[in-house]
């Protein structure tokens, strides 16, 4: 079965979710592009979108329509070529409308798992629950006579475990998109011990056609991305706890969030990132990873406490941010949650005091947005960190410890053979987390 | 050669801002003024300088594609909206793609020559930011032959001029020509920085030539041109009053505040036929030759020129079409600095289409306004020196791929 044949009958599980809908979008366009080539015109292409929620599936169709249109507007030149023999399609307007119609025509939304029974390729993006994944994979494999390939989007569960427990005989691979899949360039590729080489070959071609940056990760719980993120988050939480001996916890959370954003020139502070991913998701990923790690405890009482109080973060259906550690007004932090008061304390009440404790930013400090687009980024960062190293107030001290810890975590990922090399860790943080520099650097020595 | 049967003057030019990307206040997500506001602002600006609408006999409104950009036709009926003093007076609209403004000016000249009016209010406008660029490309492709659209590029006109650039590179060399493109771009932006209504007025890029030397990318755009070789998408309007001698008197305008049209030509090529030689603007060449002959002058008598630089390659070929240099020598002419504001013959002194902007239907009128400003000493920071022995200004406005051309020669009225 060649690349095209493999992509003729595809299913996406969890297609109504944020990751699933993105995977559905990218796969639908890849399949449509193949189906439009003259040699494939007579072939059947079917993409089944499966989700437990009818409402989510209805939303997905609208999402696809908008997103495919946007994508088509960016690749109209290519599409004009694909529709060259369609004399009725003349203007860009005609071409783009037809492409949206053709992509949507491939997609069959359903709530029935049975729809996977004749798929050759299945993308899985359901909830991060090992037992549920194993149960569903087993059921599909039992009923699907075509020996389908499974591409799981798990960000933390070891692939070999899913393979063994669902008895897939190596027909599974970790293909971990970053959120949102349509935008983020990074995909972590995780080959289990028994993963068939054909899956790896296919995955490489598929990623290339989707213009994704593929970083191989070894099959350890959490892989590279969450391997770094979860430990990085625990460091931030730990530091906040340490500061909270001398000040209210919500102020410490604010300060660590500011340090990890402005003093480290990252796109968002660590508590904002936890909110973005979802406090519940972070808690769950840690619980999935924890049984597999030795010598450390990937667990946070503070996360448990927040969940118990019903504060979860994550996003609304329209993509806007829910309140978590921080309160958001039009996407911008405006307050911090106090576990004592069980309410948000407006930033205005303590921000000035906290900023004074942190001390000023280096004079050469620039916002992340400026640095990420700076053609002379390396020099800008070099000057900035040189200055930061020379400062001795609380903010720079916390930043230095943070940078050193991030480096330590990354080097351990290489030492533990989660990542194959230092460069791969840097690449994941640069392309998956939009950091302006890789964690393995000389800035904090 | 035709002779002008009476004197034709222009005065009281007015431009709105050329609005679009590049202007600080432009935000694609925010609501923008519609065509009404542009027509009104430019028209009222001119009326104020000529003693009001009561002095106007006729109106002309130049526009290319309001029918698609704004779903609006029957444009002459917008004239009375400018000022109720225009109610019940005659008006027409002109369309000739990007030469629509040039045709509006020519229509005004014709009215004065035909003695149907002594004062003609001429307005040109386009409001293009209503659609994304990829759809705007469809709409602008209407300047070409629709039977050719299917075979054309997604960005139809950049594709057409990219083909011309490719052919020019092949014949005369790529490197020097691209350097000339970059120099042209730099001069356009530097001139625009002196003109507050220009789209590139806020441009602060330091090394413009280096930026303009960005390698073209066929996969991202077109094969032989980059985005700096192209004029941008613009919303804008320009207006000017075209008058007879009696008109000037009626409005109380002194001759020193007016330009005189000393020659003009308007030429059409067959839209269904491709150009015989991609490296030349044959229709432009004919129009300019005819206009200069009408004025009884040669290219050597020109003090300044407004040419139709919708693309840098069009600028290069314009120099050759005007007759300032031989075919293939356009790049040298630019690189030697002759077209710079302090050069032998300053071109596009408020930025031209690339620097000031290209609200398509306004462009021909904007050219008339810029030459009026320059020749009467009203160009402010943009002012260049008009040599006494070369007192003439030339405008060349082009519609489509060198299909509809209006060329007009001016001097300061005496």
Brief characterization of the structure:
The complex is a heterodimer of chains A (445) and B (414). Chain A has helices spanning 3-6, 18-35, 54-74, 76-82, 92-106, 130-143, 159-165, 197-209, 225-243, 249-263, 270-277, 279-289, 301-308, 351-358, 368-372, 377-390, 394-415, 422-432, and strands at 9-13, 46-50, 107-110, 121-124, 149-152, 172-177, 186-190, 213-217, 326-329, 332-338, 343-346.
How is this structure best described in words?
The complex is a heterodimer of chains A (445) and B (414). With 445 residues, chain A is α/β, with parallel strands linked by helices. Chain A has 2 domains: 3-217, 3-Layer(aba) Sandwich (Rossmann fold), CATH 3.40.50; 225-432, Orthogonal Bundle (N-(1-d-carboxylethyl)-l-norvaline Dehydrogenase, domain 2). Chain A has helices at residues 3-6, 18-35, 54-74, 76-82, 92-106, 130-143, 159-165, 197-209, 225-243, 249-263, 270-277, 279-289, 301-308, 351-358, 368-372, 377-390, 394-415, 422-432; strands at 9-13, 46-50, 107-110, 121-124, 149-152, 172-177, 186-190, 213-217, 326-329, 332-338, 343-346. Chain A has an 8-stranded mixed β-sheet with strand order 3-2-1-4-5-6-7-8, sandwiched between helices. In chain A, strands 9-10-11 form a 3-stranded antiparallel β-sheet. In chain A, helix 2 (18-35) packs across helix 5, helix 9 (225-243) runs antiparallel to helix 17 and helix 12 crosses helix 13 (301-308). The mean pLDDT of chain A is 95. With 414 residues, chain B is of the alpha/beta class. Chain B contains 14 helices and 9 strands. In chain B, strands 3-2-4-5-1-6-9-8-7 form a 9-stranded mixed β-sheet, sandwiched between helices. Chain B starts with 7 loop residues before the first strand and ends with a strand. The chains are: A alpha/beta (445), B alpha/beta (414). The interface between A and B is medium-sized, with 11 and 13 residues.
